[in-house]
Amino acid sequence: MYNRRKFIKLTALTASVATLSKYATAKNIPTVPGDRLPIVISTWDFGVAANKEAWKTLEKGGRALDAVEAGVKIPEADMKNHTVGRAGYPDRDGRVTLDACIMDEFGNCGSVAAMENIAHPITVARLVMEKTPHVMLVGDGATQFAVEQGIKKEKLLTPESEKAWKKWLVKAQYSPKMNIENEQHRPGSKYNHDTIGMLAIDAKGNISGACTTSGMAFKLHGRVGDSPIIGAGLFVDNEVGGATSTGVGEEVIRNVGSFLVVELMRQGYSPRDACKEAVHRIIKKKPEIAKEIQVGFLAINKKGEYGAYAIQEGFSFAVCDKNKQDLLIPGESYYKDIKKN
Ligand code: ASP
């Protein structure tokens, strides 16, 4: 599993590769429409391993939907990942509740929220999409549906997560502190929330996306963030492109972030500029809150051009195509741009 320390090293390495110039942002990657497909991109350093799994489907000519489901199951199963899936940190009551959604090229979508005792929420989200007339199932209803579909119920709270929760209980501050990933700014900070959002375009040019998280660590029981909300944590429009988000979900929901990014791309914005505009809307609406939190958007357009933008430094995203399967790109950010200007 990739961790942030490795990411910092990787960043240094990436920066030294002449072909990628100083920073391999989407802005300076050459655009060769049509030549970029298939492609898969996803949030954070753990996206590298997830993309590689998705790539197994894409390189065989498989469907983007199958690729994104398989891809995000990697961090969902990772016992060291405490922000996604089965080893996710619990809520303030010690209960692990998971959120996920999935969307395909036809505008079909499925979602589960605040679901307990099921290790792969993305698979249940897909089953909601394919086997029910509904889009979203929550809580016990989602778990019950998963079991009816033959999925095994299991205890998710790992000894490590339990230990972290018990430590948190000592002070039990019921307003979860947001992590900002830049270790230079916050040495030793603990990452208490992150999400894998993944977008893929298959060889036929069809787009799908998946998004899955355990949400904010030690959240109020029943809290649901942006990640399972279609339009907030994820949105795909096969005519235009797709977008996904990570960070403090409340601010993404308030701005219907991923839908906004896709609509901006429809109006002609590049993926990176669409993400930047969505970040600016969040900051404009709540400037005081924005100073203290992280939100990052990641987007891809129909041609396979991609881009990202975040409020704070520290965001990264992974890219995988036929040229390179393990590219990790540091995201641009509002506060870094402010420092530069
Ligand atoms: N967006 C997630 C949530 O609010 C957390 C994250 O991605 O950091 O639940």
From TrEMBL:
Native species: Mucilaginibacter lutimaris
Signal peptide region: 1-26
Protein name, per record: N(4)-(Beta-N-acetylglucosaminyl)-L-asparaginase
InterPro entries: Ntn_hydrolases_N, Peptidase_T2, TAT_signal
Keyword Cell inner membrane found: no
Keyword Metal-binding carried by entry: no
UniProt KW keywords: Signal
SUPFAM superfamilies referenced in this protein's UniProt entry, alphabetically: N-terminal nucleophile aminohydrolases (Ntn hydrolases)
CDD domains on file: Glycosylasparaginase (cd04513)
